[in-house]
Amino acid sequence: MPLMPPGPFDKTDRAILTELQGHGRTANVDLAEKVRLSPSACLRRTKALEEAGLITGYRAELDRTGVGLGLTVFISLKVEQHSRATSRLVEDALTAIPAVIACYVVSGEADFLLEAVVPDLGAYEELLLDQVLAIAPVTDARSTFAIRTVLSRGSLPLRQWP
Predict the structure, then answer these.
(1) CATH code for the domain defined by 11-51
(2) What is the mean pLDDT of residues 76-100?
(3) Are 120 and 71 in contact (CB under 8 A)?
(4) Candidates 3.30.1340.30, 3.40.640.10, 3.40.50.300, 3.30.70.920; CATH matching 71-145
(5) Is the pLDDT score of 4 beyond 50?
């Protein structure tokens, strides 16, 4: 059975979400036309999707190299003393580091997986030694550097909706 979000969401909501994922700056009147709704009905539905937490924000996607952040690194972290308190401490510390653009709690050999962007190897060294490894429960860090981005897809496939 496909997972459904809470609430009375339907194919029109899916169309709105799909369109906004690809074109977040679409004017409401244009969005309404694309999903075949009146502008007022479209705005009402979009606001409901925001209030339900399905739309969490709008942002521009930037070229990392173009803005001087040409090095992407994935960092696997191990921590000691597995507990909620430890997890919160690590999560709060990582959230405060601007270079960390994604953080996941994972299972397997690591406890956390980070995605970070920095200008170069020198900046990476500072990030690793002065910020990441300075977090008390962190006991190990393993890094993998991205050579080239093949696919970076921000859009979610919403095929599970009716």
Answers:
(1) 1.10.10.10
(2) 95
(3) yes
(4) 3.30.70.920
(5) no
